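User: Could you walk me through two proteins back to back? I'd like the raw sequence and the structure tokens for each, with a short line separating them so I can tell where one ends and the next begins.

Assistant: Of course. Protein one, sequence then structure:
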Amino acid sequence: MKLRLILSAFFAGLAFTAWAQQTADVKFEPGNFGTMVSGTITGDEYFDYNLGAKAGQEMFAELQVSDTNGNGVIYFNILPPGSDGAAIYNGSIDGNTARIDLPDDGNYTIRVYLMGNDRDTGKTVGYNLDLSIQ
């Protein structure tokens, strides 16, 4: 009976695994080390921005609300190369400005998402995300 419950919980969890509804690769203009991206998130959507970096470089990311029909409860996480969703920076805990030294070479993901009532009631939040790597 316990095994059946464990397996049921495992497969139920798989059914609710979310995939990014939107993804973009971030490229900097020649001679620049940063850029600003903008977008909107509604409800339980999230947007993944992917960019390559080297170990030891510093990533800066700052997220600001540009418009909302809710409370503007928006955050971002930074996921390291090869992550299954585990973040090295969690905006809902650490705030919407990050300055971190990158531990590995590879492609990092900045995942923008809503939380709380905005997520649960399908509100829309517009944002500007300032990104740089040095």
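----
Protein two, same layout:
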Amino acid sequence: MSTTQDVISEGEVTRLLSELREQPETIDRILPLIYDDLREVARCQQARFGSTPTLQTTELVHEAFLKIRNSADQNIRNRMHLKRLSSLAIRQLIVDHARSKLAAKRGAGQAPLSLNEELAEAGSEETVLMIDEALARLEEANPRLAEVVIARFFGGQTAEEIAEMLDVSVRTVQRDWERARAWLLVEMNS
């Protein structure tokens, strides 16, 4: 259930996003309004992939915002679209962090994994990179399934939020999630 403050913030974010094209500096006024959303996405990822001393929630939020700020010239339609972009930015940051941590461990073996809610709790950089590589292949094969995975797995969004973002039914999102999980499981185990 939305509070009055949520409705005001939603309207304010949408209004500021509409001004963004003509006034790119408007993005700086949006951060305080979406900060909690960004923290929630980052916190979700830290819980999934394990918090490390070198990559904290606040750092993820600020780095994600900088990525979004640097690409503020794109057409950001609404708060949900902004949250999607945030999920993508945080995914990139986590994958980049995992790559840099593994740079010294080139050639390490990888065990077969299953894609489920417990997968990410392993907290390993190898897992993050395996998921990212499999997700890149899924994006080529079926972009909508990849969107569902990114929104749910990297963005921590609910089926209802994803359905709204993609303009499909909740049931479609649930089916897409199951199909994507099965596809990724096969990809990651091959």
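The chain has a mean pLDDT of 76.

Let me know if you want the two compared in more detail.
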